[in-house]
Every structure is written in C-alpha cells, then in structure tokens.
Amino acid sequence: MTTDHDGSTGVPEQDPAAPPAAAATAGRGTPAPGSGKTSGRSPARQRRRASVVRFWRQYRSHRAGVCGLAALLLFGLLALAAPLLVGSDVDNVTDAPGDALEGPSAAFPFGTDQFGRNLLGLVIWGARVSLLVGLLAAVLSVAIGTLIGVTAGHFRGWYATVMMRVTDWFLVMPTLVLAIALASVMPRSLVTIVVAIGVTTWPTTARLVRAQTLAVETRPYIERARALGGGHWHVMSRHVLPNVMPLVLAQTTLIISSAILAEATLAFLGLSDPTVVSWGGLLQDAREAGAVSSGHWWYLVPPGLAIAGVALAFTLCGRAVESVLNPRLGVSR
Questions:
Q1: Which residues, 6+ apart, have CB-to-CB distance to 68 below 8 Å?
Q2: What is the largest distance, in Å, between two alpha-carbon atoms of the chain?
Q3: HSE-up of residue 84 (Cα within 13 Å, Cβ side)
Q4: Mean pLDDT (whole number) for 20-28
Q5: CA–CA separation, 66 vs 74, rounded Å?
Q6: What pLDDT shows up at residue 327?
Q7: 91 and 120 in contact (C-beta within 8 Å)?
C-alpha cells in the first residue's frame, strides 16, 4: 500500500451509495440471484409458440387441408390400433376364419382373400407397413435433397456444377425404373424398398432447396455473418437451413404420397418383402388369384381405395402447408 503526499492511501474510495463490486459485475457474465438462467430463452419459446399458433390458425382456413389432416389422423389411429382391432394373427393362412374369395357380408364387410382371410383386417394391418415405408422413404429422400441443395447453393463453383449434373441425370431417368433396378439387385425387405424409393426421388427437392438457398444467401444478414467471422457451417446451419425449412416441410408432405404409391407399385410387382402385409402386396395377391378376370372386385377395391385415400390426404395437406408457408402460391381453399 502506498501513501500519497497528502497522507491518503492509494486505494480509491468508494461511494457508500454505490453497489458493491460483486453486485456491479453480476450482470456481466453471472446471472443475478432470482433472475433465472432461462430468462433469455423464454422469449424464444414464446415466439415459437406464437408461430405455431399462427400457422395452425392459417391452416384451419384451408378446408381441403383440414379434411386431409382428418383422414390422415384416421388412418394413423387405425394403423396404431391394428393389433387391438384385428389381432396380430390376421395374416395367418392356416387358421383363416372364412372360405376362399367370399363376397362382402356381415361377418366379412370387405370379403375374404384367396386363403379365406378377412380382407378388412388385412387392409387395416397393411396400413402399418404402407404408412411406415412411405414416411421413412420420404424422410430419406428429403434429407438427401436438402443436403445436396444447401451445399450446392452455398459452395457454388465446381462442386455445384457436379452436383447439379448428377441431379439432372436423376431427373431425366424414370424414377420407377431406377427403383425397380435397385430393388431387384438388393435383398427383398422393407429396408430395400425404403432405400430404393429414397435414393431415386430426391432430385426435385435438391433443385428447389438450391434455388431457395441462392435467394437466401443474397440477403444482407448473410454478408454480415460472414464479415463477423462466420464459417461455412455456421452460415449454412444457423442462417440458410432455418430459412429453407418451410420449403422442406412442404416438400416432405408432398413426397410422402408419391412414396406410398411407389411402395405399392414395387409390392405389386413382387419386389417387396412377401412375408409382410401391405396394400401393394394385397393387390399383388389379388392379381395372382385372378381377381381381375374372375370378377372378385372386393379383393381389389379396398386396398386400392386405401392407397388412393392416403395419397390424396397427404397431397391436400401438402398443398395447404405450401399455401400457409408461401401465400404467394395462391393455393385455393
């Protein structure tokens, strides 16, 4: 401690009314007592909650989208409750409850198949496989398309040129032919169907996401982020991806219907797992049983209507989501 010429010490005096040093520095890095560590997160949660409420309010104004969502909820509940509604032995051919190819009746509202199994139970049970494969294939397709679209739109140069040429090649090739080729050389399983659909249906998503990425990266806040030292990963994950996610969400709902139709087609061609029950597999069984030529319409109509109904419901939901996220599309209500 040093002493000045006037006899006072070198330590500066503190104002009695001033707050203590610990309290003065409390707001610099450590939250003050009672303020709570989550106070900064609360506004973000409130904004997300308000965004969800606003989205649902606008979505409800689309009658077709609401009808599609109601149909999807019905199909989803039937698929989840299938073990309780029809039992896990509905596909058993040794203890079939009816005779082969019985017409619709009170006991069998949808009739029976060539083995005497209840078609109503088979259609309900087949919803589990068809919806699961469609959802997984759509998620895989959108994930691949989003990754390629964002990176090609961000990096430009030779990488973008190569990726876009590969995308163009997949676009000009028939998707169904590529899926059949992949499913033919791979083991017959549900994983094969998911991979075959997912790796052949991503180009449309990639081109849409790349176009949106190019538009986002021209905005001023992207330049500010780069000027402040933001790297490629920071710009893509924190600025570009959140802005393209509405487009990705809308694209997912639209691709699910195409994936379900593709799964039914592959199963109808006999390229799916023959041990599982799906709507496409039921159509394949009906074809092998000669239901078309023999006039057993009840063998074909229920799974066909189920496929068409789910595809239409996802399409209606997708168009409604597109209209909410991008009102300039002008989708009718």
A1: 312, 313, 314, 315, 316, 317, 320
A2: 118
A3: 5
A4: 42
A5: 12
A6: 63
A7: no
- Start-to-end C-alpha separation, the chain: 81
In tens, the pLDDT along 27-79 reads 444 444 444 444 445 787 888 788 888 888 999 998 999 999 999 999 999 99
- pLDDT > 70? residue 87: yes
Report yes or no: 301 and 240 within 8 Å, Cβ to Cβ: no
Q: How far apart are CA 132 and CA 6, in angstroms?
A: 86
Q: Output the six-digit token pair for 249.
A: 């969400």
Q: How many CB atoms lie within 10 A of CB 102?
A: 18
Q: What is the pTM of this model?
A: 0.76
**CA separation (Å) from 6 to 3, 9, 11, 221, 271?**
8, 9, 13, 57, 99
Asked if 144 contacts 133 with a C-beta cutoff of 8 angstroms, the reply is: no
3-state SS class at 9:
strand
Chain position carrying tokens 């409420």: 53
DSSP state for residue 238 in the 8-state scheme = I
